[in-house]
Amino acid sequence: MSDYLEFEDGDVIDGVHYHRHDVVIVGAGGAGMRAAIEAAPRANTAVITKLYPTRSHTGAAQGGMAAALANVEEDSWEWHTFDTVKGGDYLVDQDAAEILAKEAIDAVLDLENMGLPFNRTPEGRIDQRRFGGHTRDHGKAPVRRACYAADRTGHMILQTLFQNCVKLGVNFFNEYYALDLVMTEVDGVPQPSGVVAYELATGELHVFQGKSIVFATGGFGKIYKTTSNAHTLTGDGVGIIWRKGLPLEDMEFFQFHPTGLAGLGILLTEGARGEGAILRNASGERFMERYAPTIKDLAPRDIVSRCMVQEVAEGRGAGPHKDYVLLDCTHLGAEVLETKLPDITEFARTYLGVDPVVEPVPVMPTAHYAMGGIPTNVKAEVLRDNDTVVPGLYAAGECACVSVHGSNRLGTNSLLDINVFGKRAGNNAVDYASTVDFTPLPADPAKAVRELVEGLRDASGTERIAALRKELQDEMDRNAQVFRTDESLAKVTETIHELRERYKKVSIQDKGHRYNTDLLEAIELGFLLDLAEVVVYSAKNRKESRGGHMRDDYPKRDDETYMKHTMAYLTGDPHSADAADHISLDWKPVVITNYQPMERKY
Amino acid sequence: MAGAATLEAVDNTAKAEAPIQAFTVTLNIRRYDPEKDAEPYWQDFDVELYATDRVLDALHKIKWEQDGSLTFRRSCAHGICGSDAMRINGRNRLACKTLIKDLDISKPIYVEAIKGLPLEKDLIVDMDPFFASYREIQPFLIASSKPDKERIQSVAQRERFDDTTKCILCAACTSSCPVFWTDGQYFGPAAIVNAHRFIFDSRDEAANVRLDILNDKEGVWRCRTTFNCSEACPRGIEVTKAIAEVKAAVLRGKPDIPKK
Amino acid sequence: MTSQAAPPESPAASVPLPKKRKLPAGTLYRGREGMWSWVLHRITGTAIFFFLLVHILDTSLIRISPEAYDAVIGTYKTPIMGLGETALVAAIGLHAFNGLRIIFIDLFSWGPRAQKAMFWVVIGLWIVLLIGFVPRHLMVVFGGE
Amino acid sequence: MSTQNIAAPRSPHLSHRKRRFNIEKWGWIYMRASGVLLVVLVFGHLFYNLIFPGKVSILDWAFVAGKLADPIWIVWDLLLLWLALIHGSNGMRTLINDYAHGRFRTLLLWALGATTVVLLVLGTLVLTTFDPCIGGTDNAEFAAICAAAQ
Ligand SMILES: Cc1cc2nc3c(=O)[nH]c(=O)nc-3n(C[C@H](O)[C@H](O)[C@H](O)COP(=O)(O)OP(=O)(O)OC[C@H]3O[C@@H](n4cnc5c(N)ncnc54)[C@H](O)[C@@H]3O)c2cc1C
Ligand code: HEM
Ligand code: SF4
Ligand code: F3S
Ligand code: FES
């Protein structure tokens, strides 16, 4: 056993702190805290998070959380399943979608019981509203399925989960950045044994040994410039998994939300359209009537986004540069705006100086949600390939790909996802931890991270992090956004390679140890570069248009060839010039139970 | 390549909005790095900005183009995560919600850390004491029965505590309170706001416990109605009013919640 | 800001030396009506308190002898003390009116929202009080005898 | 004072204990109740002493004695004394709690308490045992009262 590290919880060896917990959760957004609420009462649990939990981006979610409660009109979880499958352009694993829709009801009731202040119906039940892509009886008409709390549902979910974590005394390690997953070779197979984290306040390294490890680190929208995502959503968790040689699924599918404040990307919830707001082009035409005659403005996001870009491309955009469309809420009246959509009303006023009560708001699509991520099964267990699980490793939330969202997530299904699969991850992690022993840590598990951190701190190159990041984001917006072509994607690939070379020559200015955010931005950029490359490489390979992935050169969906998930693996030196030399792609079949792929019409 | 061509144009939307004119703004930032400095000091930076930029954009420009060691917290960049409360021109605000055009740029913009919490580095303070007093007021629903479905709550009852559910725990209020500055022992408005959120929730059964906790030397009675908290709250919560309601509830022995 | 803002020359070397400034204590918090009314309330309250201490002591002299009392009170009858009395009445007026404002804030649900308006009402009433009192009193102080 | 050298906020030693008599709560109520009464008492007092006679110079022993010959004014001034002094000391207590720390705070609080008690007792004695006839008076009305009392 001498190959392995011997230590006690709390030891400090060579400046590295060692901790031992049955369950180690990385990330304290909705998914991470939902898992913690299950895990903490039953096992010794630690939650590592780079932000104070209430700063997580779940708090930005506005519109609502879907569940077929049928509180205001007839509804059923089967319809919800169908909508999810259809919304995801049939790339959804239908067994997972069924679980999502069925467990949605309990997920909402759990939250209510934990104290979440949902808006209420006149009878005092949880109120529900319409949301894009959610329909009654397989597409007949929009249905009221989204449970909501004004336009701050995500805020309320995040607060409620945090409140319950406080109640349970969950052990948070705030402002600890997880930077590596420790794998120990056991019988020739690498098994997860811990997580290495960097403590922002001190610059010290911590190793958390865990029997079960849950990743819930959220999305990576910062690969784009125009995004609704937070500055901190740099995909660290997904990047860590990628660097371990584990696969990533469906990375080409990124959702662009139709209504971001033009130029800024700040989100205006789809709930606005749920309440009746209308998209208009420069001439005031309600153009969605042409594209989706049945559900018009409430068509799924990929469709609406594309139509908007189309309108602008064809010269019908509004504004001096004809480069955006308008979201018209004026007919809703001040009352509805102030009571049901107060936050977005304020965003428009603050950031654009536009008052939605009297004028339409300039909007354009904004990078919003990563459908792809760490592949898991319905138990939230991470997959090593198409069907082998990595024992003890779990993922949930936006960083994971179950896949319930397929190629396009329906609005309100993600808050649902984090609750349903966050809970499952927590439960299964505890169950697993109660049956096994700790996997020993290798000698010096923090070695790689120490080298990374010290390498960057001492680097004396001439490149600046911010400049590289900006080039990456601009390029992704230009060539890998709503519309993609072989040519545009090839350009991005080239840019990324070049940026990667320049990244070797960066230097940071803050050489200190305490609160060195300069250093962390450098590390985060590393993850962004890795993930952007996987997104682009996967996108280049999928020569069809489906859901969030729209190829101008292959505008049709091609079920013959592409009705399957992409699985990407890191198999070589990421610095090699040709992405094909270090990324290899594979396919994974889609689970189909009840619904055969059909053309998507709304 | 219709799509890509369009997207070029999208980039420029913000500029298209108003006649764009960049001007140079001076930011005077209170710096402190415990590894180097014995005392905090002020440092100026000149930054090119647009009227639509926010103070957060200015800080980013400095960090990204001039001095990477400038340290501050931020995440969402639109006022919902509560990371970037700081003192801007002498008042607590969120950097991401403060537009340059709303400030007088003929003079330097003063930016410094919030007051009353231990200063860690530049604009970062230690938030642990803040969360500690939050935890003390038992900020979670306490209800004995577990119904099969949701608990029933009328629209009026839900409305009763709506204002205080908006809190993002940014600490702008607590760190603007002159009473909190004196010795930091006062629970502070944020903790009271979050207690209010549960005390006035018709589903909660432990209002008395929280009222007891706040009926204390460091509780509601220390509030001297200076209203700095209400002025500072980026969520527009009527903090002082909430505190007054809690005081009234302590005096009556129970909160005033609509019966139906 | 799409233009590729050229990063300043050689980045590693371009860190500007801090232009250090004195003023380490941080700026004065710029509160509004609520905060300044509280500052005034504190100052006036404290001032009145110390006056009251002295006032009780000097008034107690009436128990000792008329002469003692008159002697001490006599020393008060100077223009300076007259001004002091004016300040005292001003302080009491401000403290009293603002005290009522605080009570209204605490007592009525509309109070907190009306606090700024009430502050200006307090100032208004206070000015009226001073207009009623000061000229008369100063006339007595300076013009008397 | 920079933020680095103040005690960590909400340090545990000061956390709440349960007291039967809650001085903060009752103090708060008292400040408001006494405040309302004080408005009447203080302005009455000021008006009678400063405005009503029309001349500050008239304020002398005889004037006070004359005033205190009326029992209503004795009650008035007694109320004023107690309400204002307790109101003021409770206010000062708040200030001391805000700005003074540790031993110094304890010391100040004791000093404040002692001063208040002494002055309350003194003031009460003066007012209740005051004999307007200890001094000679040229006020005829007054002399009559004194004579009657003898
Ligand atoms: C503006 C906006 C509006 C939305 N509206 C809706 C909606 O109405 N309905 C809906 O269903 N969905 C909505 N979504 C999507 C949904 O909010 C997110 O997908 C979901 O909240 C993600 O939750 P999460 O727990 O996976 O991640 P997050 O909440 O992003 O949390 C990530 C956590 O991981 C931690 N973390 C990250 N990296 C590290 C690291 N290296 N080390 C340690 N910790 C780390 C962070 O600290 C954070 O706590 C919206 C999204 C956005 C951006
Ligand atoms: C004339 C009528 C008066 C009214 C209506 C009044 C009202 C009040 C009120 C309501 C408060 C509480 C403030 C708070 O809790 O924030 C207060 C505080 C105070 N009062 Fe008065 N008061 C009056 C007279 C006096 C007098 C005569 C004195 C002096 C002896 C005095 C000294 C103080 C002091 C020292 C405070 C504490 C200030 C603080 O904590 O900031 N007041 N007053
Ligand atoms: S009450 Fe307002 S200022 Fe205070 S913490 Fe909450 S959101 Fe911030
Ligand atoms: S600033 Fe402080 S004194 Fe009261 S009104 Fe707000 S808590
Ligand atoms: S960055 Fe989130 S509140 Fe400002």
From TrEMBL, chain A:
Membrane topology: Peripheral membrane protein
SUPFAM superfamilies for the chain: FAD/NAD(P)-binding domain, Succinate dehydrogenase/fumarate reductase flavoprotein C-terminal domain, Succinate dehydrogenase/fumarate reductase flavoprotein, catalytic domain
Keywords noted in UniProt: Electron transport, FAD, Flavoprotein, Membrane, Oxidoreductase, Transport, Tricarboxylic acid cycle
Domain spans labelled Fumarate reductase/succinate dehydrogenase flavoprotein-like C-terminal: 469-602
Residue span, FAD-dependent oxidoreductase 2 FAD-binding domain: 22-415
Kinase among keywords: no
EC number: 1.3.5.1
Pathway(s): Carbohydrate metabolism; tricarboxylic acid cycle; fumarate from succinate (bacterial route): step 1/1
Compartment annotation: Membrane
Similarity comment text for this entry: Belongs to the FAD-dependent oxidoreductase 2 family. FRD/SDH subfamily.
Protein name: Succinate dehydrogenase flavoprotein subunit
Organism of provenance: Protaetiibacter mangrovi
Source lineage: Bacteria, Bacillati, Actinomycetota, Actinomycetes, Micrococcales
Encoding gene (name): sdhA
UniProtKB/TrEMBL annotation, chain B:
EC numbers: 1.3.5.1
Broadest EC class assigned to this enzyme: oxidoreductase
Pathway in which this enzyme or protein is active: Carbohydrate metabolism; tricarboxylic acid cycle
Superkingdom classification of source: Bacteria
Every 2Fe-2S ferredoxin-type domain range: 23-117
Cofactor field: [4Fe-4S] cluster; [3Fe-4S] cluster; [2Fe-2S] cluster
PANTHER family: SUCCINATE DEHYDROGENASE [UBIQUINONE] IRON-SULFUR SUBUNIT, MITOCHONDRIAL, SUCCINATE DEHYDROGENASE IRON-SULFUR PROTEIN
Family per record: Belongs to the succinate dehydrogenase/fumarate reductase iron-sulfur protein family.
Protein name: Fumarate reductase iron-sulfur subunit
Species per Swiss-Prot/TrEMBL record: Protaetiibacter mangrovi
Automatic annotation (TrEMBL), chain C:
UniProt keyword Membrane present: yes
InterPro entries: SdhC_prok (IPR039023), SQR/QFR_C/D (IPR034804), Succ_DH_cytb556 (IPR014314), SuccDH_FuR_B_TM-su (IPR000701)
Cofactor: heme
Keyword Nucleus: no
Protein name: Succinate dehydrogenase, cytochrome b556 subunit
Record-stated family: Belongs to the cytochrome b560 family.
Subcellular location: Membrane
Pfam families in alphabetical order: Sdh_cyt
UniProt keyword annotations, A-Z: Heme, Iron, Membrane, Metal-binding, Transmembrane, Transmembrane helix
Species for this entry: Protaetiibacter mangrovi
Transmembrane segment boundaries: 39-57, 86-105, 117-135
Gene coding for it: sdhC
CDD domains found in the cross-reference section: SQR_TypeA_SdhC_like (cd03501)
TrEMBL record, chain D:
Keyword Membrane: yes
UniProt-annotated location(s): Membrane
Cofactor dependence: heme
Transmembrane segments: 27-48, 68-86, 107-130
Keyword tags: Heme, Iron, Membrane, Metal-binding, Transmembrane, Transmembrane helix
SUPFAM superfamilies documented for this protein: Fumarate reductase respiratory complex transmembrane subunits
Keyword Metal-binding carried by entry: yes
Source organism superkingdom: Bacteria
InterPro entries (UniProt xref): SQR/QFR_C/D, Succ_DH_cytb556, SuccDH_FuR_B_TM-su
Family of the protein in this entry: Belongs to the cytochrome b560 family.
Name recorded for this polypeptide: Succinate dehydrogenase
